[in-house]
Structures are given as structure tokens and as C-alpha cells.
Design a protein that fits this description.
- With 340 residues, the chain is of the alpha/beta class.
- Helix 4 packs across helix 5.
- The protein is built from ten helices and 13 strands.
- The radius of gyration is 23 Å and the shape is elongated.
- Helix content is 33%, strand content 24%.
- The strands form three sheets. The chain has a seven-stranded mixed beta sheet. A four-stranded mixed beta sheet has the order 3-6-5-4, with helices on one face. Strands 1-2 form a two-stranded antiparallel sheet.
- It folds into two domains: 146 residues, VC0802-like; 167 residues, Vaccinia Virus protein VP39 (Rossmann fold, 3-Layer(aba) Sandwich).
- The structure holds S-adenosylmethionine.
- S-adenosylmethionine (SAM) binds next to helix 7.
Length: 340
């Protein structure tokens, strides 16, 4: 929401007709907005947003009612308008329609998919269709959510190299916003992996000078390829390094961004018991007083234990987020002054 308000709240089109939050359509990680047409492009430029969907709502109790003559015509017109607006804004085109719904193989859902596909002049492809339409009941209505881009916005064009445990780029961008107000330009990203956090921060903050490091030389090379593709290689320095023993001097950093191994796809719960305290101690040593550590972890019990009691950190923000099948924790910690 911070990026939304910062980027859309002040634009001239939105000052006349502001984007409005209408409510949460069934998930805590989704917001519904009324967006005037001139601001659609700005919505698609948001970096913390995973996907944009057009919400089409019909006051019917069962999906079969959507197939009646009048409603079917209205539905077809609405979906065509959603796709036309989307392609006008993003320039992208779709190849096939995929309907996602409980019971999507039922007769009714197959007819609904066929009707929608016919309206937009595309074939149905239940596996690889890139015009994704979700159908679901909501209160007394049926709702169609039409994704407005062939790929989620979180799929970044700069990603030419991937690594196990790679962070969702929209979540990476959100970490920078959660750590704001900007603590200053000197940033470190230990556990850099494919470079998602370092690159997203460098793209969002032109002043940022980021150093990213990782034990694995292949990760460092991968992050380098991505940074070059993103056009930020000049401001993202990448090197081999151990998150348990940083090269940075005491109090030399303004911001640290990190997603240490969660102990499943990368690392193990056993090695994390030694790695996490060492990483937190190094972050506390290298951040200046008032500097911030924004990080994502699924090691919730271990983290709680490490942060219990007095210590160098003040908790600024903590929240659970969705990430693939996980529900990790995002934390923003502020380095207390040495005298506190
Ligand atoms: C969860 S992944 C980071 C993913 C990364 N943010 C991305 O989007 O690709 C964790 C990374 O930590 C690295 N790593 C594990 N132990 C480390 C250590 N002691 N010091 C530095 N890097 C380490 C792994 O090689 C891996 O690249």
C-alpha cells in the first residue's frame, strides 16, 4: 500500500479521481481499487504488486446463470473490454485462455471457458493459457478476475538467471518500501543468491550503492548476469563472502536486506542455528545506529528466540506474507544506538 499511495496518490489524474481501496476480495494479500483509465499504466508499473486483475462482478447465485443469453453477452463485452484495456496499456498480447475455478472441468465451467475464449478470439488452454481468468463466488455474487498481463508482474524482464530459493521480485521490492524512510545509500545484501533484493533496491532507489555477497560463486555470477540485464551493474557490487563474517567496517552501512536460507530449498535447520545468530551479530556490527535490517525468513521460532530480551534491535515492523507455498515472516529491525 505504501508504494500505491506514493506512486498513485500524487499523480495528476489520480488527484482528480483517486484510486480507491474497495475492500479485500477474499485474501489478505489482495486489495481492490477503483482505477481511472488514465492511471491503468501506472498501476502496471507498480513493483511491489504480484499481479493485476480486472474484477468483473455479477449478482448471480450460481455460475450456470452466467451462461444465460443476456448475461453471457454482458460477460463477453466485459472481458473484451478488460483485455482491450490491458493490451493498450502494456502492449502485450495473449495466446490462449485458461479458466481457473473450483470444478473447472465441470460442464458449466467448460462452457464458461469456451464462451469467454470465443468472446476474445482465443483458444482455451487449461494448462498453459496466459489469459488467466479466475471464477469464484463472493458473498451473493460470482466474480471473474481477469489477469491483465500474460505473466505475473513479479516475473521480471531482468531475470536471465534463476537460483534455488529465489525470492519473489515483488516481495523483494516491498522489503525496500517496508524499510523506508530511506536509511541512506550504503546497502548490503548478504545471501545475495540470484540478486533479487539487491537489484530491486537499486532499481527503486537511484542513490543506492549496494554490495551483495554469497558463499557460492555460482550465485555471485548469476546475480551479476541479472544486474547487468537490469542495467544496475554499476551500482550493485557482487562478491563472494560469508554472511557469518562480513568484510564491512563497523557502523558503515545504512541498510541491510536479506533472505537467509529457510532450511528447506537452501541450507538446513541445523546449520541455521549457527548461521542466524552470526548473521544478526554481523548486521548489528556493520549497521550505523538508526540503520535498518529488513529481512524475510521462515525460521520463525529460531528468530523469535534470537530476538527475545534486550539486544541491539528495535522492531519497526513485522508481518506474515505469502510466498509460494510458504507463509514467511518479514521483519524490519532498527539498530539501536550503542548507548541505548
Ligand atoms: C534463500 S537464498 C537467497 C535467494 C536470493 N535472495 C534470490 O532471490 O535469489 C540463500 C542464499 O544464501 C547463500 N548462503 C548460504 N549460507 C551462506 C553464508 N554463510 N554466507 C553467505 N551466503 C550464504 C546460498 O548460497 C543462497 O544463495
Amino acid at each position: 500500500m505504501r508504494e500505491l499511495h506514493a506512486r498513485l496518490g500524487g499523480g495528476s489524474a489520480l488527484r482528480r479521481d483517486p484510486a480507491r481501496v474497495l475492500g479485500r476480495p477474499g485474501r489478505e494479500d489482495a486489495v481492490a481499487l477503483r482505477v481511472p483509465r488514465p492511471s491503468l499504466a501506472a498501476v502496471h508499473d507498480l513493483r511491489t504488486v504480484v499481479a493485476v486483475q480486472r474484477v468483473l462482478r455479477y449478482p448471480v447465485p450460481r455460475p450456470k446463470a452466467l451462461l444465460g443469453d443476456a448475461l453471457r453477452r454482458q460477460l463477453a463485452g466485459d472481458v473484451v473490454e478488460a483485455v482491450t484495456d490491458a493490451t493498450a496499456v502494456t502492449g502485450a498480447s495473449f495466446t490462449a485462455l485458461r479458466l481457473e475455478a473450483a470444478g473447472r472441468d465441470s460442464e458449466v465451467m467448460r462452457r464458461l471457458a469456451a464462451a469467454l475464449a470465443e468472446a476474445v478470439g482465443l483458444p482455451v488452454d487449461g494448462n498453459d493459457g496466459d489469459l488467466v481468468v479466475r471464477a469464484r463466488p463472493e458473498a451473493d455474487d460470482w466474480v471473474l478476475l481477469v489477469r491483465t498481463t500474460p505473466r505475473p508482474l513479479a516475473t521480471r524482464p531482468w531475470r536471465v538467471c534463476d537460483r534455488p530459493g529465489g525470492l519473489n521480485a515483488s516481495l523483494a521490492a516491498a522489503l525496500g518500501w517496508l524499510a523506508s524512510p530511506p536509511a541512506g545509500p550504503r546497502v548490503a545484501n548478504p545471501f545475495v543468491g540470484s540478486g533479487t533484493l539487491a537489484i530491486e533496491l537499486a532499481l527503486a532507489d537511484r542513490r543506492a550503492e549496494v554490495v551483495g555477497f554469497d558463499l557460492d560463486p555460482e550465485a555471485v555470477a548469476c546475480a551479476g548476469r541479472n544486474a547487468t540485464a537490469a542495467g544496475v551493474a554499476g551500482r550493485v557490487r557482487l562478491e563472494e563472502g560469508d554472511a557469518a563474517a562480513w568484510r564491512q567496517a563497523d557502523a558503515s552501512l545504512d541498510l541491510v536486506l536479506a533472505d537467509p536460507p529457510w532450511g528447506d530449498a537452501v541450507g538446513s535447520r541445523a546449520t541455521n542455528r549457527a548461521l542466524y545468530p552470526a548473521f544478526l551479530a554481523e548486521a548489528a556490527r556493520c549497521l550505523r545506529p538508526g540503520g535498518r535490517l529488513a529481512w524475510v525468513t521462515h525460521e520463525i521460532e529460531l528468530t523469535r528466540a534470537l530476538l527475545a530480551g534486550p539486544g541491539p534491535w528495535r522492531v519497526v515492523d513485522e508481518r506474515r506474507v505469502w510466498h509460494g507455498g510458504h507463509h514467511p515472516w518479514v521483519m524490519v529491525l532498527e539498530r539501536r544506538s550503542r548507548r541505548d
